[in-house]
Amino acid sequence: MKKHSQKEQTEKHNKFKIFVWTLFDFANTSYSIVVVTFLFAVYFKDTVCSGEPIGDLYWSIGVSSAMIITALISPLLGAIADYSAGKKRFLLFFTILCIAATASLYFVGEGTIFWALLLFIISNIGFEAGLVFYDAFLPELTHPKNFGRVSGYGYAMGYIGSLCTLAIAFPFIQNDLIKETFPIAAFFFLVFSIPLFIFMKDSRKPREEDISYLAVGFKRVFFTITHLKYYKNLAIFLLAFFFYIEGVNTVIYFSGNYAQTTLGFSFTELTIFFIVVQTTAILGSVGFGIFADSFGQKKSIMVSLLIWIVTLFFAYVTSDKDNSFVALIADSFNLSIESIPRLSFYAVGLLAGTVMGATQSISRSLMSKLTPEEKKTEFFGFYSFFGKSSAILGPLVFGIVSYLTSSQRIAILSISIFFVIGLIILGFVKDPKIIVKNEILS
């Protein structure tokens, strides 16, 4: 009876740890939805850049700059955190950095392009670098067989956080108080991130006093790079991840601008659109997480990438009123041709939402399965490196194509090539289930 009670207590403790971990996802997506995807992204082009087309290019430069810096420091930070077992301390530092810079965005306005970009870059570095340490907690929370669903729970909680943030911000949006939502997002992030730092334990390791963290970080990164040939399957996955997450990141960074510039969405319409996206993202994250644990992470990611390709092509076709497909939809549903591009974009949101969190969530769980236990944070640093460095090229491609062609339709279609390349490379990754079976047979 005592053993049974002890087992129940352990299970409750593990569930509580998972809840606290997912609560940080609930907290940090307030930044993601308000600053990266929606309000500040649109505010930057519409207000800071006075609605000029070059605003897309400036935004892409800001995104790429933040990602370059994060990509360069992520493996080093991961290696240092592995050596010191100090994930929580690093996560706290970057969380505070993100929150402070986000709150400061309140002070930027028309013409303050430099300061707006600088604060955005600092906040994004804090957000993205913090994810290196947050993601690295996943292998400590549950067994590998449950990585998919637990990772999915985290993303689902994140999208619930986005919905709560939008609900709080909606009255401000309706009253055209857009810049007031930036400190609100920062405060939301602050409040709901606190439980992780209070309740999550972070073990400490003794270290030699004459060896600096920086020296250890460079040494371990160099060792990992030179020995990457011993992790061939992981290396192939990271290459595939580099390309397909390029597309995901670009869609996230430019979806708000696209809807506002190309389709003429108001802030209220954009809010409704993102509520649709976040709602389906909750279902997609949990559903794909369960699917991944049952049928394999690789297969689940490949399905999500096919949906992404279809979604981008559908967005490209339906956003042009002068084509036969739009006319066919209008006739079939007895609607005006002029209304189709705007209405169909809600369908785009439904499709994108279904796989937006799912693609990222399953990638995180597959990474957890492929990563050696003793180097988990370091390898998640490389995972972050590939994810962030990939986000340099995609936004630049979108920004440059949009600026040169004066067409965001062509720019959004050009992003589909990243999903195609990622899908092809992913086909060469060995599924972890197959690897386990082969090891048992041998």
Q: What's this model, at a glance?
A:
By secondary structure, this protein is mostly helical. The chain has 18 helices and no strands. It is globular and about 65 Å long.
Order of helices and strands: HHHHHHHHHHHHHHHHHH
- As an assembly, this protein is single chain
Enumerate how many helices there are, as a single number.
18
Low-confidence stretches: 434-442
Give a structural overview.
This protein is mainly alpha-helical. It has a single domain (19-200, 209-441), classed as Growth Hormone, Chain: A (Up-down Bundle), CATH 1.20.1250.20. It is built from 18 helices and no strands. It has helices spanning 2-37, 39-48, 54-84, 87-104, 113-135, 138-141, 147-174, 181-199, 213-226, 232-261, 267-295, 297-318, 324-332, 340-370, 376-405, 408-414, 416-426, 432-441. α1 crosses α7 (147-174). It is globular, with a radius of gyration of 22 Å.
Question: Any key phrases for this structure?
Answer:
disordered C terminus; 442 residues; globular; mainly alpha; 18 helices; 0% strand; Growth Hormone, Chain: A
What is the topological layout?
Blueprint: H1 2-37, H2 39-48, H3 54-84, H4 87-104, H5 113-135, H6 138-141, H7 147-174, H8 181-199, H9 213-226, H10 232-261, H11 267-295, H12 297-318, H13 324-332, H14 340-370, H15 376-405, H16 408-414, H17 416-426, H18 432-441
